[in-house]
Design a protein that fits this description.
Organism: Dicentrarchus labrax (European seabass)
Membrane topology: Multi-pass membrane protein
Largest sheet: 10 strands, mixed
Subcellular location: Cell membrane; Early endosome; Endoplasmic reticulum membrane; Membrane
InterPro entries: ATPase_P-typ_cyto_dom_N, ATPase_P-typ_P_site, ATPase_P-typ_TM_dom_sf, ATPase_P-typ_transduc_dom_A_sf, ATPase_P-type_domA, HAD-like_sf, HAD_sf, P-type_ATPase_IV
Subunit structure: Component of a P4-ATPase flippase complex which consists of a catalytic alpha subunit ATP11A and an accessory beta subunit TMEM30A.
Distance between the termini: 90 Å
Radius of gyration: 38 Å
């Protein structure tokens, strides 16, 4: 009896737990394996549905209510509302219930709408059409219906719907070309391979006939790692097993390029794809201002409870005497007499809580929500943040974090597509110390490529001409560039010449494309790779053919690549290009010093440099190299190490030919933006999946790293030479030693840190602490704190989020911002306090998942320095002002209880209690929080250091909060006792009315309360008017209109008998009060006394120790009044050119000292004038101008530059 089936089932489910957990078996085309093979056990996998939304139709109400009632204020008002329903309180339950219902409803509608937009975006992705092979035919279905094991057909320029294993392609060699821009930020073309046994399939019938299974690891988020194997069954033979790696796997979100179609099998679908695993789950982000509001609410809640306790205790102490406990005019009922004293005391305590609960107004949260929602439109409407090329402006996906834009301390930015355009430009090359510049300018004429070479080398010697030819041939042959002869790519017309499509280049490295195009401009054109022969067109219009024998691919450890070719004459040549540090040690001859000098000069200017060398191989040397390479490629174990050893043996004894210089174009004003962020006190980190060399060059070009910056490396290469423990402690000692010396030296050394993904993983491993080898995280953070900039390269998307989370959780708890443009940036965008997506070329995943979206990186400057600054100033004033005006409102009510026997008698009329926060005082502060500009926009952009004045939540710190609270208490005491003492002497008239002897005004409870309330409304409104710096007609209308509305309402409320009211206690009170002249005088006097201390305090502080913002305000006022020109602020410079009769050049607040090659010519001319060149353009003669692909640029005089 055969127990194979039973044994397999038992081993899978019982014994083989590790196999079951750590691997999965995918049946291609859902076909069972043949009899005798492993048992067919169908496994359940998720469908291909992607979910980025937060709510569903069923859980929206309970989940949203739970999140809203986590807010202290909402929960508090719910409790107050329930108390008002349960017991008899001085005020109606409607006063708390209606505002609470309004706040909850408005917030739920806003958050529901935002989530509906996310649902809509998910549906558009999940319902995308996908072609699947079923029973030998192509069937179209929707993306969310894909299952693991389905064979998918993907055509050129289509995006992969899930994670796939490549089976075959339309290319004969079984390869396909892919861009992974939305995953790792690299828009270059990458090559992926099908296994040899399946690469020959060309039709759906052939693919459907495949009988195979794939065994692979369970889903994990590492984009660059995949381990598996494919078992191919052929008739009754043993299955053929082939290894599968990352080079066979096509990831969801990547795009097929330069390949007509492919057949692939789905292995990971839906939320198990690597892209989805790298998404952070959406969580509710809360701003620092909201956290401060909650802290202040707890303080005011404590004050409220204290007031209620004090009044309850004093009430029972005052009523200890029998005549006070039950006076003749207020006899108790029988139930009240029988109720226990503890119950009565608790009921009174709750009644006092309700009476004083207006100290925490629910209207503040309504106003804050409205301010955030309406204020977000200022970003959307900003014309300076509108991009003409995209035809779009900035977008606000959530308005809850507006003020957080003004509190950012760390900026984490992607590189490719965010800082750079990923568009390389060939600048120059140097052969044996002679510089070659394509399209050089000489005597005002643009020279063609060929003539420029002839001009530079008018009489080259034989040796020099040979090296020149070898150099250009090396760059035309040593690359992995493909030639595409189509009219369009990515929907953009390219290579059009006189209406005819011509060829253009694509590659996995944009540097290689730039070099090959640069050679084309210098007369050597790479034509094609056909039948393993590379063809080039030399400057004599002759086609040269070289057989491509071997490619020694580039890797980040060697930092070079090589090719071995055979010329038409049978000569074997090894061409190599790479970083100077990897080429120079392997060179045995050539003009090393001259080339090295030029390389160093180009590197200082932020250009990407490569050195080029060659070696002639004899027949025996070539055969030996072939033996080493073949042996290493066939190895199944340690293949990478063996290849590295083979490359090391082959790549030596070079003859140096020269070097190249390539510029990666930064986005417009990217360097200026980073410089402004630094001046504003922010630390900028670059997190990229790109290579270290590429990223470092970009950091220099964008001024993240400067010439004086000392670079600290924390990379895999270094940790292989030393232990991670030793490297970390060595770097920590370096930065701490410099910090201790910085107090003694004027010139403080600037540090920049470079770390790669592998080293970061080692630092973040939790077992480090358990092993007792030290807390690596804390040491790493200490190093980072002392570095002005940090570059993290070779980062997986989840590692980017881990970096952000690490900084967020550090002891300072800084506010973080993440900005990126691809799906690989979504995780860090969701993790950071503020996430900003760029509407770039790499899809809209980042923009869709971000809090804010902007067209270009340069717009970040205005978003933070202007909009963020304004938002924070406005909402900080709004929060403090709301607490202040409610202290002024409720504290007189507290004092009044001492004069009414603690009877819970309200001081103010019910209408005043209800409308104070809703109508009388809410609109002025709402408008202030929308349009206030304490300094002008131009000043904020010109002087980024003003951002430091509001850093670390400075306007909502406890000292500021206590000042506002004490000011409110002081004003409340003035209101109450001022009115009390001014109208102290009262007598009864003949008809029984209470009349003041000094003012002859009828005086009673409601008259006294109305007088206090009138002073209160005018004082808090005028306090806001004094704080307003930016006056417009709408400010005047709202502030004076609110006061006028109060007066008109009081006249109407007290001047008419309202039939729907059971009582009319305010009838004629307001008019009687205003009919008294002393009452007018008292109101004016009390308002003046209340406002005076705050005015005096501001004048003294502004005079004795003004802040940078106050100095900027004074400067703005002087500029507006015409008293002075725009005097530079602390971080500004002023350049003046020489004055002539007809011209005067003045440059203020524009840094022009750091000039780069690709800057526009007009700016160079202005900069030269600014440095004293005047208006005479002939003074520019030391400069040699040229026209590059980017437009006009300049050359400062350089060593051995022959043009």
């Amino acid at each position: 009896m055969d127990f194979t089936l039973l044994r397999n089932i038992i081993s899978r489910y019982c014994v083989g737990e590790e196999i079951w957990v750590d691997s999965r078996t995918v049946y291609i085309g859902h076909k069972e394996p043949p009899p005798g093979a492993e048992a067919y056990i169908p496994q359940r996998y998720p469908d291909n549905r992607i979910v980025s939304s937060k709510y569903t139709f069923w859980n929206f109400i309970p989940k949203n209510l739970f999140e809203q009632f986590r807010r202290i204020a909402n929960f508090y008002f719910l409790v107050i509302f329930l108390v008002q329903l349960i017991i008899d309180t001085p005020t109606s339950p409607v006063t708390s219930g209606l505002p609470l219902f309004f706040v909850i409803t408005v917030t739920a509608i806003k958050q529901g709408y935002e989530d509906w937009l996310r649902h809509k975006a998910d549906c558009s992705i999940n319902e995308c059409p996908v072609d699947v092979v079923q029973q030998g035919k192509v069937v179209r279905t929707q993306s969310h219906k894909l299952r693991v094991g389905d064979i998918v057909v993907v055509r050129e320029d289509e995006t992969f719907p899930c994670d796939l294993i490549l089976l075959s392609s339309s290319r004969h060699d079984g390869t396909c070309y892919v861009t992974t821009a939305s995953l790792d930020g690299e828009s270059s073309h990458k090559t992926y391979y099908a296994v040899p046994d399946t690469m020959a399939f060309r039709t759906e019938q052939e693919v459907d006939s495949l009988h195979a299974t794939i065994e692979c690891e369970q889903p994990q988020p590492d984009l660059y790692k995949f381990v598996g194997r494919i078992n191919i069954y052929k008739d009754k033979e043993e299955p053929v097993a082939r290894p599968l790696g990352a080079e066979n796997m096509l990831l969801r979100g990547a795009t097929l390029k330069n390949t007509q179609r492919i057949y692939a099998v789905a292995v990971y679908t839906g939320m198990e794809t690597k892209m989805a695993l790298n998404y952070q789950s959406k969580s509710q982000k809360r701003s620092a201002v909201e956290k401060s509001m909650n802290a202040f609410l707890i303080v005011y809640l404590c004050i409220l409870i204290s007031k209620a306790v004090i009044n309850t205790v004093l009430k029972y102490a005052w009523q200890w005497s029998p005549d006070r406990d039950e006076p003749w005019y207020n006899h108790r009922t029988e139930n009240e007499r029988q109720r226990h004293v503890v119950i009565r005391a608790f009921t009174d305590f709750l009644a006092f809580m309700v009476l004083f609960n207006y100290i925490i107004p629910v209207s503040m949260y309504v106003t804050v929500e409205m301010q955030k929602f309406l204020g977000s439109y200022f970003i959307t409407w900003d014309e300076e943040m509108f991009d003409e090329e995209l035809g779009e402006g900035a977008q606000v996906n959530t308005s809850d974090l507006n003020e957080e834009l003004g509190q950012v301390e760390y900026v984490f930015t992607d590189k490719t597509g965010t800082l750079t355009e990923n568009n390389m430009e060939f600048i120059e090359c140097c052969v044996d110390g002679n510089v070659y510049i394509p399209h050089a300018i000489c005597n005002g004429q643009i020279l063609s490529a060929a003539s420029s070479i002839d001009m530079i080398d008018s009489s080259p010697g034989g040796y020099r001409r040979e090296h020149e030819d070898l150099f250009f041939r090396a760059l035309c042959l040593c690359h992995t560039v493909q030639v595409k002869e189509e009219e369009t790519v990515d929907g953009i017309k390219r290579g059009i010449h006189q209406g005819r499509p011509t060829s253009f280049y694509i590659s996995s490295s944009p540097d290689e494309v730039a070099l090959v195009e640069g050679m084309k401009r210098l007369g050597y054109t790479y034509l094609r790779l056909k039948d393993n022969y590379m063809e080039i067109l030399n400057k004599d219009d002759e086609i040269e053919r070289f057989e491509l024998l071997h490619v020694l691919n580039f890797d980040s450890v060697r930092r070079r690549m090589s090719v071995i070719v055979r010329s038409s004459s049978g000569e074997y040549l090894l061409f190599c290009k790479g970083a100077d540090s990897s080429i120079f040690p392997r060179v045995v001859s050539g003009k090393v010093e001259q080339v090295k000098a030029r390389v160093e000069q180009n590197a200082v200017e932020g250009l990407r440099t490569l050195c080029v060398a060659y070696r002639r191989l004899t027949q025996s040397e070539y055969e030996e190299a072939c033996h080493h390479l073949t042996e290493a490629k066939l190895a199944l174990q340690d293949r990478e190490q063996r290849l590295a050893q083979a490359y090391d043996i082959i790549e030596r004894d070079f003859v140096l030919l020269g070097a190249t210089a390539v510029e990666d174009r930064l986005q417009e004003k990217a360097a200026d933006t980073i410089e402004s962020l630094h001046k504003a006190g922010m630390k900028v980190w670059v997190l990229t999946g790109d290579k270290m060399e590429t990223a470092a060059a970009t950091c220099y070009a964008s001024k993240l790293f400067r010439r004086s910056t000392q670079i600290l490396e924390l990379t895999k290469k270094r940790t292989e030479e030393q232990s991670l423990h030793d490297v970390l402690f060595e770097l920590n000692r370096t930065v701490l030693r410099q910090r201790s010396m910085s107090g003694l030296s004027v010139d403080c050394l600037d540090f920049g840190l470079i770390i790669d993904g592998a080293t970061l993983s080692a630092i973040l491993k939790p077992n480090q602490e358990r092993a007792g080898t030290g807390n690596y995280r804390e040491i790493f953070l200490e190093i980072c704190r002392n570095c002005s900039a940090v570059l993290c390269c070779r980062m997986a998307p989840l590692q980017k989020a881990q970096i952000v989370k690490l900084i967020k959780a550090s002891k300072e708890h800084p506010i973080t911002l993440a900005i990126g443009d691809g799906a690989n940036d979504v995780s860090m965008i969701l993790e950071a306090h503020v996430g900003i997506g760029i509407m770039g070329k790499e899809g809209r995943q980042a923009a869709r998942n971000s809090d804010y979206a902007i067209p270009k990186f340069k717009h970040l400057k205005k978003m933070l320095l202007v909009h963020g600054h304004y938002y924070y100033i406005r909402i900080a004033e709004l929060v403090q002002y709301f607490f202040y005006k409610n202290v002024c409102f409720i504290f007189p009510q507290f004092l009044y209880q001492f004069f009414c026997g603690f009877s819970q008698q309200p001081l103010y009329d019910t209408a005043y209690l209800t409308l104070y926060n809703i109508s009388f005082t809410s609109l002025p502060i709402l408008l202030y929080s929308l349009v206030e500009q304490h300094v002008t926009m131009e000043t904020l952009k010109r002087d980024p250091s003003l951002y430091r004045d509001i850093a670390k939540n400075s306007l909502l710190r406890w000292p500021v909060f206590l000042y506002w609270t004490c000011l409110g208490v002081f004003d409340a005491v003035i209101f109450f006792f001022g009115a009390y003492f001014l109208f102290d002497n009262t007598t009864f008239t003949s008809n029984g009315q209470l009349m003041t002897t000094n003012t002859q005004m009828m005086f009673g409870n409601w008259t006294f309360g109305t007088l206090v309330f009138t002073v209160l409304v005018f004082t808090v409104t005028l306090k806001l008017a004094l704080d307003t710096h930016h006056w417009t007609w709408i400010n005047h209308f709202v502030i004076w209109g609110s006061l006028l509305f109060y007066v008109i309402f009081s006249l109407l409320w007290g001047g008419i008998i309202w039939p729907f009211l059971n009582y009319q206690r305010m009838y004629y009170v307001f008019m009687q009060m205003l009919s008294s002249g002393p009452a007018w005088l008292s109101i004016i006097l009390l308002i003046t006394v209340s406002l005076l201390p705050d005015v005096i305090k501001k004048v003294l502080c502004r005079t004795m120790c003004p802040t940078a913002t106050e100095r900027a305000q004074d400067q703005d006022e002087l500029s507006q009044d015409g008293v002075a020109e725009s005097t530079p602020l602390s971080s500004r410079r002023s350049y003046k050119g020489t004055s002539t009769e007809s011209s005067h050049v003045h440059f203020g607040a524009v840094e022009m000292l750091s000039l780069r090659r690709s800057d526009p010519l007009p700016q160079k001319l202005l900069a030269h004038l600014a440095e004293g060149g005047g208006a005479d353009l002939r003074s520019l003669s030391p400069y040699v101008l040229r026209l590059s692909g980017a437009g006009f640029a300049h050359y400062a005089p350089g060593p051995e530059t022959s043009v």
